Amino acid sequence: MHYQRLALLPQQLHIVIQTRYYASTTSSPFPFPAHPHPTPHQIFHLPYNASQQDIKARYYELVRHHHPDSLSCRDLPSSDRQARFQAIAHAYDTLRGKNPQTGARRDWGEYADELQRRKKRWERQQSTRYDYAHPPRYKWESNADDRWKDNMILTIGIVSLVLGIAPSLLMLPFSVHKTRQKHLETASDYSKVRAEVVEEGEERRQSMKYRVETMKLQKDARDDPTDVNA
């Protein structure tokens, strides 16, 4: 009854259902993927960073379990067994970097044409693109008749540079001497001001001392009774 119902379904859907059914009931530790278009890594049940040794070891295990004459595939139709075995072989060639049709090792895989096309397009864009950060340098060409102009421009530039620097170099000793003289004058003025401040402070101290003594004598005179009786 089950097979009669499957026979009424479309051929492609019938194959998908059979594949999922046998994949779920097989005793293989690495069952064949149930979806119709599995990737090589999904067929081998390996991550994308698997080594070549892991790929080779897994290939031997898949061949042992999914060989058309193995016991684990005895319930599958002959066409499905052959298709699975061919898919495993093609996946193994792909993971090893070989072309399944010719057996030659590919450097770019199945995306070589697309990569070359994108590379050429990028090169065309770079060739027509103006580099604002590094603009092209223009070559300065001059003949023998224009050399005197170049020499004159160079001479004028050197003379202008010398005239601009010479006054500063000539005035440097005078400016140093003048700065030193100002420094000495400032130090002398500071010493004079300090002496005046010390002298003024001494005078104030003597004046305050005299006033304190005078006030003390006046107080003693007021407190003395003999002076009052007199």
UniProtKB/TrEMBL annotation:
Tagged with keyword Transmembrane: yes
Q: Known PROSITE patterns for this protein? A: DNAJ_2 (PS50076)
**Superkingdom classification of source:** Eukaryota
Instruction: List the CDD domains.
Output: DnaJ
What keywords sit in the KW lines? Membrane, Transmembrane, Transmembrane helix
Name of the protein in question: J domain-containing protein
Check the record and name the Pfam families matching this protein. DnaJ
State which residue ranges cross the membrane. Answer: 152-172
Q: Which residues form the J domain?
A: 39-112
Repeat in keyword set: no
